[in-house]
TrEMBL record:
GO terms for biological process: glycoprotein metabolic process. Pfam families: LicD. It comes from Effrenium voratum. Residues 72-110 form the LicD/FKTN/FKRP nucleotidyltransferase domain. It comes from the Eukaryota. Residues 1-16 form the signal peptide. Keywords: Signal. The lineage of its organism: Eukaryota, Sar, Alveolata, Dinophyceae, Suessiales. This is LicD/FKTN/FKRP nucleotidyltransferase domain-containing protein. InterPro entries: LicD/FKTN/FKRP_NTP_transf, LPS_cholinephosphotransferase.
Length: 255
């Protein structure tokens, strides 16, 4: 209880956005305004309001992880953004982080969701399935825990997806905290197997106004996740809707 109260008090200050930060975000939002992909696909930049909400969400989750004493690393699109843009990818309203098993359990503990799997429901998709648990909102955050497996039951991914409590449950502004399973030499993530020396010890990269923990070798990790041409990669979101399998097939029970 004292931990939860301390986090709620600290989170009030974490949401404050200073004038200098606003100006920097405005610059990030307007430059570049468009990004052209081979074949003519255009990525629209995230709106400034959503960019500010994403910053608030990252701050809230970072504070929660700090109080849980859970270590984490920037990952996936957020690592790509930090490496190339010193912030989020301008057209991506999602953030991504990675936690090893012990720290993932600490996160579940502070959320009171250690037994989430027993309370989850199963959703089948073509060629795979996932279990999902709708968590009780905690402070300024709402969250879901979900685990994905292929058609023969092999593990694909486990993650906690956070959104601001003030937004809708299917709000596209979200943060995915992915589980990484390690065996002493490698870490298995949702989309790549990574040698541990590429991840640890962590280094710091700029993301918004912060220097956040990131993999030791960002470029090599990004190559394993996205291929050698990761700098040219474009993953355009559809504004106002989610293109993910999870959100196409799962309709929440509550608004």
């Amino acid at each position: 209880m004292r931990l939860a109260v301390a986090w709620l008090l600290a989170s009030k200050t974490c949401l404050a956005v200073q004038t200098g930060s606003f100006l920097e975000l405005q610059s990030l939002w307007t430059k570049p305004a468009w990004s052209q992909q081979d074949g003519g696909t255009v990525c629209a930049p995230v709106g400034l309001a959503d960019l500010l909400r994403l910053q608030a969400l990252v701050g809230e989750v970072a504070q929660l992880l700090r109080l849980a004493k859970a270590r984490w690393l920037l990952s996936h699109g957020s690592l790509l953004g930090a490496w190339l843009h010193h912030g989020p990818v301008p057209w991506d309203e999602e953030a991504d982080i990675l936690l090893f098993a012990e720290d993932f359990q600490r996160l579940l503990a502070v959320l009171g969701a250690e037994d989430w799997l027993a309370q989850s429901r199963r959703v089948s998709t073509p060629g795979s399935s996932f279990q999902i648990y709708e968590g009780t909102p905690v402070g300024a955050l709402r969250y879901d825990v979900h685990e994905h497996r292929d058609q023969v039951g092999l593990w694909l991914a486990t993650a906690v997806t956070f959104r601001l409590h003030s937004g809708a449950r299917d709000d596209p502004v979200q943060l995915d905290a992915f589980l990484a399973k390690a065996n002493g030499s490698h870490a298995w993530t949702d989309s790549a197997v990574l040698p541990l020396p590429l991840l640890l010890p962590p280094r710091r990269l700029r993301f918004f106004d912060w220097l956040l923990p990131a993999p030791q070798a960002p470029r090599r990790v990004l190559e394993l996740w996205y291929g050698p041409k990761f700098a040219a990669r474009r993953k355009c979101a559809l504004r106002g809707r989610s293109s993910s399998c999870l959100h196409r097939l799962w309709r929440p029970a509550t608004p």
